[in-house]
Design a protein that fits this description.
The structure is a single chain. This protein has 504 residues and is an alpha/beta fold. The protein contains 19 helices and 17 strands. It folds into 3 domains: 86 residues, Winged helix-like DNA-binding domain superfamily/Winged helix DNA-binding domain (Arc Repressor Mutant, subunit A); 148 residues, Alpha-Beta Complex (Aspartate Aminotransferase, domain 1); 240 residues, Aspartate Aminotransferase, domain 2. The strands form 4 sheets. It has an 8-stranded mixed β-sheet with strand order 4-11-10-9-8-5-6-7, with helices on both faces. It binds pyridoxal-5'-phosphate. The site of pyridoxal-5'-phosphate (PLP) has 13 residues, from helix 10.
Length: 504
Amino acid sequence: MHIKIDRNSRTPIYIQIRNQIRAMIFDGRLPPGSLLPPERKLAESLGVNRSTVLTAYRELKADGLADPHVGRGTVVLSVMSEVSESHNEFDPPLYSQFFSQISERANDPLLRDLLVMANRADVISFSAGISAFETDPVEALHGIEEEIINQPNHEALKHTPTEGFWSLREAIADLMQKRGISVSPDEILVLSGSQQGIDIAARVFIDPGDVVIVEEPSFFSALQIFSAAGARIIGVPVDDQGMRVDVLEQLLQRYRPKLIYTMPTYQNPSGVSMALERRRRLLELAFRRKVLIMEDDPYSEIRFEGARKPCLKELDPYGYVIYLSTFSKILFPGIRIGWVAAPRLIIHQFAMIKQLQDLHANSISQWIVERFLRSGRYEDHVRRISEEYRVKRDIMLDALLDRPIPGMEWIKPAGGYYLWCKLPEGTPNMSLLVNAAERGVSYVPGTAFYLGGKGGQYMRLNFTYPSREDIPAGIERLKEAITATLEKTPQKYPAEERSIKPIV
Ligand SMILES: Cc1ncc(COP(=O)(O)O)c(C=O)c1O
């Protein structure tokens, strides 16, 4: 019997148990005559007191749904006729029966769980992909909010057009210019975070059954969004030069995709950047096969070393690239401002969908970002956080190299937010996640970035959010968790035969 307890919920645990068993009885998963698990056993498996389960069973008895028999256990009653009579008109309906296919497909709790983990004081979080709060960035916004609220005409409290407030669109066009991309402000639409841009793209371009090409691994929210839209998702492997464009070429012949979704620079999760020749080849292929490319670029300005690579949009002479970016990684995720840059007709279509979703991005946030961009402090700010994040990346790499775990490999990222690690062969992914959580450290398991259960041998570690002091402590906890997990797992190869190979 699968019962999920939400310890953060305000609903008492015995009611959560009662409600879930009720739902199973009503939808036939627990037919009349079946036995509920013994109280002690269920209590053990859920990690709750026996009295909690006892109370839940008493409630079920009071509802006329189950009958505890001494010696036989608790039996599910034949409910259909009695239930309709005894059904309390104030009982809630079985809401899940009303859910659409799209919402059923969008039921992965990963993102929510990661946000909860990142906020827990006892956990060192390498899981959330968010900016640091302990360094200077908050400073950058000081005074701006007050200035906006005190505007004599309260502009920031009014509606803005769906495409975004014009002065911000101009400021973003200037920023794009610095990234090497020439677009006019009316080719920009301001989003409530760039994730919204992926969702709108799915609604604008994808009908159920259409093929979308993604990198393998790819950003988990994009996978969830395209799956929820009913797309057929085909993965192209990534190596240390980015997407394998040779493999893409074969796939483009076989499938006729509508869209290629790619993160060419400091990819989430692998941290790798696509080589320049591959970028050119990708554009050529998209043009030849008439496939649109969505270039998701949240991280390219967070560069630690190496030359800046041009964005696909900068290199695109054909008009096939839809460019997506965000202020979440440079400023703060809670500001929820991103943007899409594309030809006017596409911007118009995106605006039509966005209008249905939320009318426009939050006006105050748009003003904050506009003021900040126009304050002249942006470049300096990016330089400072990039330096801070480079230091943190190095602290994490040093901690991993200090008494390394045999068989663990990683890619040293030249920018961005993440370290992508390969676990020693045979490490059971799920046990490790539990062991790590018990030791107070979190990461994102590789399976989140693949479809169909692949990626179990990888994990993604974020180095921007935890403090400099917490990083070595968290890596120590992680190593302990890996060692403990491996000790409990029979190994194919002895430890000395597993090599230490940082791919640096
Ligand atoms: C590749 C990529 N795209 C989009 C997003 C979402 O960003 P936003 O906060 O702007 O919705 C993220 C956040 O982690 C990301 O890594």
